[in-house]
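Lab notebook, bench 4. Still working through the backlog of constructs that have no structural model yet. Next entry is a single chain of 299 residues. Request: give me the structure tokens for it.
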Amino acid sequence: MTEIQKYLAEEVGEDLADGIITRREAVRRLGLLGVTGTAATGLLATFTAAPTAAAEPGKATDHGKQSSSETRWAPVARESITFPGPRVPLMAAWAPAAKPRGGVLVIHENRGLTEHIRTVAGRLAASGYSALALDLLSEEGGTGAFPDEAAVAAALAAIPPERFDEDMKASVSELKRRVRGKKLAAIGFCFGGAMVWRLLAAGEPRLAAAAPFYGPFPEGGNLEDSRAAVLGVYGGLDTRVNATIPAAKAALEAARLKHELLTFTEANHAFFNDTGARFNAHAAAEVWRRALNWFDEAD
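Model written out:
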């Protein structure tokens, strides 16, 4: 089992432990990932053996500011686009800022390019950063070609990780073309957080900043060819991903990169996703503010 396949299988176990899916559904999803029999039973037992903390309930909404000038705020409408990739045209959602301060590459969770991720791109654009949300399943026909999120995760697990690196680099090139002369950044969530770490370790030098959200640091990852200022975001209850924080810190320090490893102690894995069971409204609002400030301050 590859590092990425292991991570995706553990996501299934964590969803079962948190009551998001049933055991039957967990077994089905593991089967799609190629984990069956004793291996599946053992993995699920690991995650259901100990009690887990419940996610904070609630749903965030974006509120416009109103003043004497009657300022209004809403996510920018996203447009489905394609652009040249290493092998086939890549698919993405594009949200252009009216007066961009920079551009941000958005990398999705293991659920693929969902409406939630498209909305994140629109929120970034409304906040001054043109955003390109890549579909890492472009070569398979896109996220919409799959019947459900379990099939999406299984498809992602079957892709050689090096292909993700190539597609993300091509997306940085497209973003640079669309926001000429502006600084570039990357943000990713869960699986996408792991992908942002991979992009930095793959020697992508064009990013001024990056914000991987609760993504495991890749084994043996070396960041010495990166120049990005890195904001690593974690949930304090997410012990599985947090076990990789020491490796991330060591790599950041070895590369002498500006960085902050930010842990929200009462939040869990995937706390930023307002469509998920682990959503934490307070942590999500604060991390959004901090991520935008981080991008603003990057050189």
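Notes after review: Residues 51-65 have pLDDT under 50 and may be disordered. The two ends are 39 Å apart (CA to CA). Flag for follow-up if needed.
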